[in-house]
Structures are given as C-alpha cells and as structure tokens.
Design brief:
It is built from 7 helices and no strands. It is mainly alpha-helical.
Length: about 150
C-alpha cells in the first residue's frame, strides 16, 4: 500500500506532530505535583476522570499525545487518518478550554492570559478537520467528478 502524501499536508503535519509529540514526551517524566495539576484541570472539564489516579491519568494522556504526534509524523499514515486522530484529540482539549473557569473572558470565546495556551487547540482542530477533506489516493483526479465521467459515459 502506498500513501500519496501531498506537499501541502507536510508542513502542518510536521509542525503539529512535533508539538504534540514533545508534549507527550514531557508528560511521561511528570512528577507527582505536575500530574496532580494536569489531572485536576482535566477533572474540572471531565468529572468522570476523578476515578483515575493522577499519575496514571497523566501517563495515559502522555501516551495518547505520543500516539497522535507519531501518527501525524509518520509519512505512511494517510492524511485522513491523521486528521481523525488530530480532530478527536483537539476536540477533547477544546472541552478543557470551554469548561475550565478563567480560560475565557466572561461571556466570550476570547482567551484570558491563562487561556492562551489552551486556545491553540482551535487551530489544531481546524487542521484536523482540513485533513479529513484530503483526497483519497485510490481515487486520484476523478474523485471530484460525477460517476458518469468516471466510466466515460456522458
């Protein structure tokens, strides 16, 4: 199976993949205090996570970030599949931004100073959604044509 990675997808996959991979690798080394902070913030947005131990949650989050970052960086992974991973991951992070108090200005989507690091998840979501629209390598140039043109009939 060959995957045709289009040139326009390389830069956003590389930039986002390295960013997410680095974040995951950093969290693997998180101490108890850092893990408690990451877990506490996640529990505000997603209360069901309170059942998990803070260090276990942070390790699972780290491996998730490593998986998503690796998916984006692997040239043999189709862009649509990388888009599914990035869209799902960033949508979960946007939930933090929207639900954690103090991340947004009152009555607005505009970030506060504390919310700026989480606001980046909107551009990651946008890239993920954009990747979902990538052309399938199997269909080639005929992907945008109607079925009558593909078979030669008019």
């Amino acid at each position: 199976m060959t995957v045709n990675l289009e040139a326009r997808d390389v830069a956003p996959r590389l930039a986002t993949g390295v960013f997410i991979l680095n974040s995951g690798l950093s969290k693997l080394k998180a101490d108890k205090e850092t893990a408690a902070g990451v877990h506490g913030m996640a529990c505000i947005a997603y209360p069901f996570l309170e059942k998990l131990d803070a260090q276990r949650f942070t390790r699972l989050l780290a491996w998730s970030e490593i998986a998503v970052g690796g998916t984006l960086l692997a040239p043999f992974v189709p862009t649509r599949l990388a888009g599914v991973a990035l869209t799902g991951f960033s949508a979960g992070l946007i939930g933090l931004y929207l639900r954690v108090p103090g991340m947004r200005e009152s009555g607005s989507l505009r970030p506060t100073q504390a919310g700026i690091p989480l606001a980046k998840d909107f551009w990651m979501l946008g890239m993920g959604i954009g990747f979902l629209g990538a052309r399938s390598p199997r269909r080639g140039a005929s992907a945008n044509r109607c079925p009558w043109h593909r078979c030669g009939r008019r």
